[in-house]
Amino acid sequence: DNKTKTILSNLGINAINDAFSTGSTWGSAPGCTVSTISSPVDGQKIADVNMATTACYDKTILKATEAFTTWRGIPAPKRGEIVRQIGLALRAHKDDLGYLVSYEMGKSLQEGRGEVQEMIDICDFAVGLSRQLYGLTMHSERPQHRMYEQYHPLGVVGIISAFNFPVAVWSWNAMLGWVCGDVCVWKPSEKTPLTAIACQHIVQTVFEANSVPEGVSCLVIGDRSIGELMANDTRVPLISATGSTRMGKAVAAAVGARLGKSLLELGGNNAVIISEHADLNIALTGAVFGAVGTAGQRCTTTRRLIIHESIYDAFRQKLVNAYSQLRIGNPLNEHNHVGPLIDHDAVEAYLKSITACKAQGGKFIVEGGVLSGDGYESGCYVRPCIAEVENHYGIVQHETFAPILYLIKYSTLNQAIQLQNGVPQGLSSAIITNHLREAEAFLSASGSDCGIANVNIGTSGAEIGGAFGGEKETGGGRESGSDAWKVYMRRQTNTINYSTSLPLAQGIKFEL
Ligand code: NAD
């Protein structure tokens, strides 16, 4: 429609888009294949993109490597000032970019705008950070010596991102990377390249106005083969990769083999413990939003509810009632709660998991299914469903990226914590309780083993101020707030002798 056309043109999206960009230069190369991007919202084609070849990738890395020698010499607060302006540009484009996130990826318009807000927030955070890249000073054991540590820029940061947060995750990495003095090469998900192209255009306007050299912000559109090139490339000292655990294991092996650094943000299998001391209204809203928001396609989506036996039946009934009121449909219509899955493969995976769950003994109390007919033409809309299961079922141990919620009953808090921890992943976790002892036990060393542990908040969503990430098969990486910036820099310890002799450490004597 005309609205979509106007928004695409505002954001620099053409009918056929280039495979790579190093800044003002955009290009493709002989041998690029074309990928057609359609919206899961209505099945309509949005645009074509050229997929980068190895030659496109090499050109990009070369430019990025060159740009680094200039960019690292610009004082960090000056780099922060440029990131401040990116925040302003994002504010100006918030509605358009939020719309495109929603239309290309399928999340609700509110969540699309929320994702752009998260980008704005990380810009603000990064501006402050640009004056706070602090190292420690130490007292030397030797007289007239000074010791301190400093953080230097690392180089090229390769960013591999997933489809479900098509722009925010890149901004978490890029804004911090830039204030730290790094240059960034972004390989977005092949399912959501258009929002990435839009971001590159927005950043480029700011970079041009500030005479930032070509190569500080680079984009390579491609599938996993480009990600593999990056992971194996010694010119890229840090790979920040967000996606499935399968991808993370491949990236970690490739980066590890060359002793590079990787920051991995992988799958979750998040649970909420609902205690007999819970505020059930908080529990219900938190659980339902956590399970069906973004159609169950958040890394922090609530996949398991671990419910105390004394309230189990009553809470189950509340869930069934709430699910019967969910409105599934076009996510651009703010009246709807649940939008589509990303594509038909995701629908297949959802159906397979339901079948597997039934075969393993799961009992569905809210049935799933694929929707068809008016408004559901894309074939990507599915019914959020709920099954009663046991934690050890193979399917429950696995992250299915769809709105399937598993219910598990518990009798003691220790048992609940064991169930919560009893999966291979370790991203987000929560307890709903008004009982101080329970809450503190859940947060203690023998409590949740996840990177994120909440009390009286669901598992889904996070603020940029904290370090984000998880343990075990979630990959161990942390990005966004707190001191996550340190991974984007190399640390150097400096010892300076201003005496007239050369005393050695540990009192060692060596005389010539
Ligand atoms: P995916 O693993 O299929 O793809 C993610 C990215 O990795 C894509 O850009 C893809 O091209 C690339 N890729 C795939 N295989 C690769 C390889 N062998 N080498 C290099 N690159 C490769 O994931 P997806 O379907 O796009 O996203 C969903 C997954 O992402 C879920 O598991 C979700 O939990 C996870 N996720 C995690 C976080 C987090 O912060 N922990 C955030 C968002 C999504």
TrEMBL record:
Pfam families: Aldedh. SUPFAM superfamilies: ALDH-like. GO terms for molecular function: aldehyde dehydrogenase (NAD+) activity. The keyword Oxidoreductase applies. Keywords: NAD, Oxidoreductase. Its EC number is 1.2.1.3. The keyword NAD applies. The active site is at residue 265. Signal peptide: none annotated. Residues 37-493 form the Aldehyde dehydrogenase domain. Belongs to the aldehyde dehydrogenase family. Homotetramer. This is aldehyde dehydrogenase (NAD(+)).
